[in-house]
Amino acid sequence: MAYVDFLSVIHKSTTRDYLARVNDLEFPKAKAAELAKKWDFDYWDGDRRVNYGGYRYDGRWAKVAKAMADHYGIKPGDKILDIGCGKGFLIYDFTQVVPGVEVQGIDISSYAIENVVDGVKDRVQVGHANKLPYADNEFDLVFSINTFHNLHAYDLDAALREMERVGKSHKYICVESYRNEVEKANLLYWQVTCEAFNTPEEWSWWFKQTGYTGDHSFIYFE
Questions:
Q1: For 172-194, how does the pLDDT look when each residue is reduced to its tens digit (9 = 90+)?
Q2: What are the helix and strand counts (H, E) for the chain?
Q3: In a domain, 45, yes or no
Q4: Each residue's pLDDT tens digit, 116-149
Q5: What was the pLDDT predicted at 157?
Q6: Is the residue at 37 inside a domain?
Q7: Which residues of the chain have pLDDT under 70?
């Protein structure tokens, strides 16, 4: 298991007003969270004060796909799974970076799967991370980005074990975390779907507890 950062290049490109997120009059934090946790239109394509404010393909994930493909030596014919694939942007970019790679995606959001990017519509399905509909050791690379921190403890335990089960070799997780009280407050202010609020040390405990052997990185709200 190693710490490998593929996401900072995207995460740090976004400007965030944490206090405005909490104090908005039309979408106060509790209302925004209630809407976001439906994983429907409001979460993906509704008002930015709820979540993404329009999650559209713009190619920004290509650099992440390239970095991951290079790091893990992904080649044509390899099988890749994205747990929490959303609209499929990253797995689509994998097909562009490594032509011939076989991709699969799964997400809890029916809306995301119905609006998945062209090119991978037949490679995605609705499902939960706690019970993956795939065989043992089926994938050469399994990854999950910004998904597992949205799970309650009982689902997180099962999901980490499932990820380990279906991954044959390479695995990678990126989740939200915090190292100090400032980052903890910012995370609480900004998030609308997080259920697992863990320090890096606590995440390491979860990985050991569930037998997860893959790589990981953390998103911090500095």
A1: 999 999 999 999 999 999 999 99
A2: 10, 6
A3: no
A4: 999 999 999 999 999 999 999 999 999 999 999 9
A5: 98
A6: no
A7: 13
Domain assignment present for residue 73? The answer is yes
Confirm if 101 and 129 have CB atoms less than 8 A apart: no
* Residue the block writes with tokens 């997120």: 21
CA distance 113 to 125: 6
Q: Residue 190 is part of a domain; what is its CATH number?
A: 3.40.50.150
* Domains held by the chain: number: 1
* Residues 87/117, Cβ–Cβ less than 8 Å: yes
Residue type, 25: L
What pLDDT sits at residue 13?
67
Domain assignment present for 56? no
